[in-house]
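Good morning,

Attaching, inline, the backbone tokens for the sequence recovery test we're adding to the shared suite. The designed sequence is right after.
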């Protein structure tokens, strides 16, 4: 197995070939981002602590953090996931990746120096490789040069020389008077929109209540007009009214037989 060793403090990188798997036993069954002592790798690595950064199996499939197995799996990838680069907008792809658990089937394992040991490793810790590009963000520049908040970051930006002139990156997240003024303007616009929205909402609620009152009055007028226009129908009699009407009819009943005798036969 090949070990790809990197030292972030010096910027150096070195590849070491390990033929004896017994030296790699402390790394087996460990997950990515785990810190492991490098004493088993040899005398020159005594006292070193390495962090497992990843690796590739013998077929070239990369290790992916979060997949808790030591074999390959097929996953559906989308934009923002590691081990995948979006070719078209909204594109997703199912591809094979290896789990994050170290095993003997790896061809290359990436190790990062987390703690330096007693001896120097040639090509890794004995030399210093300067960075080609300096930091671009304002807070990173302050951290690199130990600046205070009131110091001007633009004077400390790292410039690189080209054939004709020096180039400097555009500083990101730089706080300037123009940016503060723009921020104040945006906030005042938001405040004005909120205040105007409140006024418009009050006006709308007032007009809505007036409109509903108008609808009620129009409906009441229409109902009154219909009642006035239609004829008044007789009300159905109740039980007491029906008894009274029956008694009146009995008193005023006509004896048709007696009436016929008095009048005589019809002509």
């Amino acid at each position: 197995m090949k070990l790809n060793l990197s030292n972030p403090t010096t910027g150096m990188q070195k590849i070491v070939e390990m033929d004896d798997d017994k030296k790699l036993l402390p790394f087996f069954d460990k997950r990515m981002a785990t810190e492991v002592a490098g004493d088993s790798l040899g005398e020159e690595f005594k006292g070193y602590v390495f962090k497992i950064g990843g690796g590739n199996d013998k077929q070239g499939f990369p290790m992916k953090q979060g997949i808790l197995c030591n074999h390959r799996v097929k996953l559906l990838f989308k934009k923002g996931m590691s081990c995948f680069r979006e070719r078209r907008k909204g594109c997703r792809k199912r591809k094979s990746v290896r789990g994050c658990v170290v095993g003997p089937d790896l061809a290359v394992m990436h190790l990062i120096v987390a703690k330096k040991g007693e001896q120097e490793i040639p090509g890794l810790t004995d030399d210093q490789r300067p960075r080609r590009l300096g930091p671009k963000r304002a807070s990173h520049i302050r951290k690199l040069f130990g600046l205070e908040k009131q110091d001007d970051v633009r004077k400390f930006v790292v410039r690189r020389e080209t054939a004709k002139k020096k180039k400097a990156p555009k500083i990101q997240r730089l706080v300037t008077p123009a940016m503060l003024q723009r921020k104040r303007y945006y906030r005042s616009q938001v405040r004005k929109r909120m205040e105007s929205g409140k006024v418009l909402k009050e006006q709308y609620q007032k007009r809505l209540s007036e409109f509903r009152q108008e609808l009620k009055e129009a409906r009441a007028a229409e109902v009154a007009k219909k009642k006035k226009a239609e004829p008044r129908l007789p009300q159905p009699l109740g039980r007491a009214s029906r008894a009274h009407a029956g008694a009146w009819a009995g008193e005023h009943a006509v004896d048709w037989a007696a009436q016929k005798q008095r009048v005589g036969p019809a002509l």
